[in-house]
């Protein structure tokens, strides 16, 4: 079984539509893929309708959180998408992404960049708008060569010249809300230092004590030493460990299934979830 528990679609800042994503997941030989768009479940319907036979969809989201000024991403799986309190929090974060992106566009204009909100809005389409969309605009304008090159202090990195904060959840609230909605939480890329500051191990321990289910260990932004350290930490804290691609289509270099999750751990995640259940593809309309 090949299981990839972290992927983005055009519902947030990926470049595959949800239907393309599930087709590409099947094409990459995956048995299970989780749709984890930033702060939204907006891609579920399309992904479910297009789900190929032989592929199982795990519904989820990646919730934007902040702890003591450090950005934290919380993967949430198999929660009830209708549960009102968590739905409201997703909406608050998503809604605030628009004025925040406009602020970043304004900062770029002040820096002499010829970017407009209309350009960013076109790139984001219906997706939950984020820095990767702005980064794509900067690539289109020839300001930086790749999306990744926009994530520097000169441009869009945390605290960078054109950076603006958005409303984010307290990760302890996120754990509590997801659990209340029947879901399971996994701290995404907890030691991805190249993205900026990361939370200390003491914070991971505190989250574990508050009900966090697991941490993402096998991820492109973790080197071998980091993975070993995280695995040891997870064993100490009784946390599950996952692996996943964090696929963003052509907006990032990682491929679907580049990192995968152990089937036993996947089984444990599905056993803990009560808000929603993995959906096996019956061969949707695109078959
Ligand atoms: P936002 O949610 O709008 O603050 O944007 C954060 C997203 O930007 C993350 O989820 C990543 O997909 C992307 N990102 C962060 N750091 C980098 C980086 N160094 N290179 C490429 N993409 C990045
Ligand atoms: Zn993303
Ligand atoms: Fe993330
Ligand atoms: Fe992600």
Automatic annotation (TrEMBL):
SMART domains cross-referenced by the UniProt entry: POLIIIAc (SM00481)
Domain Polymerase/histidinol phosphatase N-terminal: residue ranges: 3-67
SUPFAM superfamilies to which the protein is assigned, alphabetical: PHP domain-like
Superkingdom as given in the UniProt entry: Bacteria
PANTHER family assigned to the protein according to its UniProt record, in alphabetical order: EXONUCLEASE, POLYMERASE_HISTIDINOL PHOSPHATASE N-TERMINAL DOMAIN-CONTAINING PROTEIN
Designated name of the protein: Phosphatase
Organism: Streptomyces virginiae (Streptomyces cinnamonensis)
């Amino acid at each position: 079984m090949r299981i990839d528990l972290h992927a983005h679609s055009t519902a947030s800042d990926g470049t595959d539509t949800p239907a393309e994503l599930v087709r590409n997941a099947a094409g990459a030989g995956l048995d299970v893929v989780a749709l984890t768009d930033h702060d939204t479940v907006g891609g579920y319907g399309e992904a479910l309708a297009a789900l190929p036979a032989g592929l199982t969809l795990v519904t989820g989201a990646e919730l934007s959180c902040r702890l003591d000024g450090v950005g934290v991403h919380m993967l949430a799986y198999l929660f009830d998408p209708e549960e009102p309190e968590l739905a409201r929090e997703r909406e608050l974060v998503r809604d605030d992404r628009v004025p925040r992106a406009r602020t970043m566009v304004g900062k770029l204009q002040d820096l002499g960049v010829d970017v407009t909100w209309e350009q960013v809005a076109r790139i984001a389409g219906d997706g939950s708008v984020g820095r990767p969309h702005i980064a794509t605009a900067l690539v289109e304008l020839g300001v930086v060569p790749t999306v990744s090159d926009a994530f520097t202090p000169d441009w869009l990195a945390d605290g960078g010249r054109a950076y603006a904060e958005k409303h984010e959840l307290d990760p302890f609230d996120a754990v509590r809300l997801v659990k209340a909605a029947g879901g399971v939480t996994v701290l995404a890329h907890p030691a991805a230092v190249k993205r900026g500051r990361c939370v200390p191990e003491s914070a991971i321990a505190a989250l574990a004590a508050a009900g966090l289910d697991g941490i993402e260990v096998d991820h492109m932004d973790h080197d071998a030493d980091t993975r070993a350290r995280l695995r040891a930490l997870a064993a100490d804290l009784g946390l599950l460990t996952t692996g996943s691609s964090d696929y963003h289509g052509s907006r990032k270099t990682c491929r679907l299934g580049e990192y995968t999750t152990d089937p036993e751990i996947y089984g444990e995640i599905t056993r803990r979830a009560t808000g929603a259940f993995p959906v096996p593809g019956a061969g949707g309309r695109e078959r």
